[in-house]
Amino acid sequence: MDFFRPDSLAEALAAKAEHADAVPIAGGTDVMVELNFDHRRPAALLDLGRIVELHEHGRQDGKVRIGAAVPYARIIDELGRELPGLAMAARTVGSPQIRNRGSVGGNLGAASPAGDSHPALLAANAEVEIASIRGTRMVPVKDFYTGVKRNVLAPDELITAVHIAPATGAQQFSKVGTRNAMVIAVCAFGLALHPDQKRVGTGLGSAAPTPRPATKAEEFIATELDWESPKPLADSVLRRFGALVAEAASPIDDVRGSAAYRRHALAVLARRTLGWAWSEHLGGGRRACA
Amino acid sequence: MTGLLEPKAIGTDLRRRDGALKVTGAARYAYEAPVDNAAYAHPVQATIGRGRVTSVDTAAAEALDGVIAVLTHENAERLASTEDAELAVLQSGDVAFRGQVIALVVAETSETARHAADLVTVHYDEQEHDCVLDPDGELYKPDKVNPAFETDTAVGDVAGAMASADVTVEQTYTTAMYHNNPLEPHATTALWQPAGDGGDLTLWDSTQGVHPARSTVAEVFGLAEDQVRVVCPYVGGGFGSKGTPHAHVILAAAAARAVPGRPVKLALTRPQMFALAGYRTPTIQRMQLAANRDGVLSAIAIDVVEQTSRIKEFAEQTGVPTRTMYRAPNRRTTHRLAALDVPVPSWMRAPGECPGMFGPEVAMDELAEALGIDPVELRIRNEPEVDPDTGHPFSSRNLVACLREGAARFGWDERDPRPGVRLRDGWLIGTGVASSVYPVHQMPQSTATIRCEDGRYVVEIGAADLGTGTWTTLAQIAADALAVPVADVQVCIGDTAYPMASVAGGSSGMITWGSAVVEAAHAFREKFGDDPADGDEAEGSVSENPMAERYAMYAFGAQFAEAHVNADTGEIRVPRLLGVFAAGRIVNPRTARSQFQGGMTMGLSMALHETSVMDPRFGHVVNHDLAEYHVATNADVADLQAHWLDEHDDKVNPMGVKGIGEIGIVGTAAAVANAVHHATGVRVRDLPITLDKLLPHLP
Amino acid sequence: MDAEITLRVDGADQPVTVDTRTTVLDALRERLGNTSPKKGCDHGQCGACTVLVDGRRVLSCLMLAVAADGAEVTTAAGLANGDLHPVQRAFIDHDGFQCGYCTPGQICSAVGVLEESDGELSRAEVAERMSGNLCRCGAYPGIVAAVEQAAGEQR
Q1: Regarding the domain delimited by C2-74, which CATH topology (the fold level of the hierarchy) does it fall under?
Q2: What per-residue confidence (pLDDT) applies to A290?
Q3: Which residue of A has its CA nearest to B696?
Q4: CB-CB under 8 Å, A5 with C67
């Protein structure tokens, strides 16, 4: 197995262009499991550990740009205010050791339906920055996943960052698991209020072959919420929202849970998170001035 | 028995003697044996559920740089004994279950060995396999159940009692397939030195008994016992799975014999452990209870169906605890097995008692509910005067005291018996109780020597410390038996170079080895008095306890659980778990508490998390790693308390100990299940209790 | 394919030749003879291999040795500098282990917890932050008590 350890992004992209079969690796929390499981025996690895810009976050065009290899622990510590939904999701990732190494870029690269960051990225309308020697393109995260553990990346491309607008309203993330820690989601749900756009963003995890938004639920709730003079939500509205979220799922039965359970739990998570977020919005919300 | 040892060191709260070695990582486990120039072995596993290997193509593997040998059934040495089919590795092309070892690669590095194992191409003649435990399928009655109990017992007329009783419970309960999953994967470092008298085999093996392991390996290879040395000072957990050698030990030894003079290291990967290191059979328990309005049992019966492998029988004694727990004139226990194309089941912490106290203890809760009698009180009302199974008196039986003490500590008296009525912040809250029991096992053989060296006493015995505290507690026993300070005692265990000791199993370690140490101490004092010279040495062995014929000897306990169930999602949390045990004298409160708590934690894990999911299409466990086979994490355990009664039993052995390694896991799952029912009103009779099973029925 | 790298292990530079597939864990255990970190799963699911790399706790089975070239690796063996580290003493005091196999990883993880937290941690927080380290013996109550004791001493 060849091992490439580029010092710069340009070098990395050149290496990826030349060795399309090289598997990119940063924190290793996904790739190494595959390797040690013998699920993969790649001809080459492309270590992104030395590329500074992948490990940084900052502002760009009013959005937060998170380098693909920024570990979850730093998102929790440093970006909780701007990106509360993503930080909440990051807090539920694997173990603390995994959170010290694992990154959003890795989650996107693996594109597992159970990846914890996807629902939060979907709810917040994140965009994925993808680069190759041919140039850089931005892909809305909802268009990024193409199948179970598949994404839009071309063989010569690398994920370099995600761009997310700072929260303008309340955000929530909720996940159900069968133990209290080190949980792979039975199902997960992310929600973000976007008062500036008068809409609500959603994201489902472990509920379909790919992470996906609950589009009908978003359309329904957009017409129900009164952003100008917000009032408490009727229980019927919350329930309808939950039902539409559950409808958006196409879950499977597996070791972690049944499809029927997942649908039910998603409806619960959806109405719960919407209730919490809307209450926060009603209360003036700590993020009113964000 | 002539009275108990006067406790001085016994009962003191000493820190572990192996503590510093373990917290620094300096304690060396089997794979870490300090050998030079090791080669590494990696098994190739069958990918069919049943059939025959028709050809093995090892050319690509052998061509890989660094590969030393590829052993298959075509070139591996013929073993002297193939009687134990689990250990008869690489002797034929037959495949009895998916995951069985069909080849072994030996290479210069572990990476190369693993890679080469991937390159071995195998062709099969595949036959249909059956790995589904079906109570209506083909079953048979084993001659005995583990280790030598009667398969069935019957007294009186259960059917008649059921027909005429005021209240009956008749339900079926199931426990899942569980894997022991010690944190240290099974590993062996093996070295064959052909020189000398026919050669010597040294095994650094992760085992619960160096001497039993030696006997097995010697027999399989046709070696004299003194040609084999097994070394194992530290065991990274076993929980029964390292109680008998599994196939990998033979493979490591065979590999070593194929590369004489070169040590070979073999560690199973975590996924391999799910096929090759034993597991607890799933059980199906049909329970019958009959009682009058006062809750007095007139009948108790359990009919058990469980699995074994087609190539080797292991019959878990699931029905056995029901023979002893409660008084009832009409009684029945039966065991039936399905022989399947599955990995070989084996010992797992409290075989028999652990699964076998789930059905009965949930059934007792159901009976209590049906009668409107408090479940603690119901158990007390059915307390037998003598062992219902043998008619012998108990050497001591303090179940009732455990129940009462536990109830007081737990705050049981304030309990509202109604299920499903306590909702706090979206969580349904309930409490449950169950009894625990574990027999006092003494193994027939163990010998210790005590030698005076530089004014200190060196105790040698080939015993094991699986985390149980043997390094420390044997020193405490020796100190009191010799009447010297514990600091003057040095303990040497974990090597067949020391006298023969029995396996660390059945909670028999302290009882058996401790008795040998006491005998050795008495012999030593008798021979050399109180002022021995350097080099003075005496030996002592455990002997049969005549009391064992006249008394029923058991430890008992009571476990109390509080369960919180999320009313919306069905998520389950257990914020409180409290056990009270009556297990004879406690040698070391610090290590004993860890044993009880560890058992209870594993019981909690069994209640809520653990299940090995067998894919019937392929015959393998799907969730064969620690991400998907969930064991309890730190965050799953909140307020976990273990207490014990000061129990004096002068019939069991000179130390007055009963064994504590296993009772902690017995009854825990039932207590949790009963608490979940009390919280929700939903009775889950199939472990583990998962969200899916609760949700459709929540109020 | 082999690569020459140098790891700084427990304060000493250790040049070592590794396969590009070799993990930091295997480099330590099989090449450098440092068997303090343990292999429990090789998949980042148990925490037994936890070491400190450049001061942060990581799973050494998920880190390639070649990618760690030049890194500062601290194992539980290296934490004991003549005397036991306060976390190690606390584990012995509270019997925060039985078989000892997960223990070096627990110790490194606990040191990481103390490093990562600036305020006082509740019992539940300690348990959560230690949940990447499985203990099949079930020594969790002792582990939490040990971390609390060490945290108290640190303050």
Answers
A1: Ubiquitin-like (UB roll) (3.10.20)
A2: 29
A3: A261
A4: yes
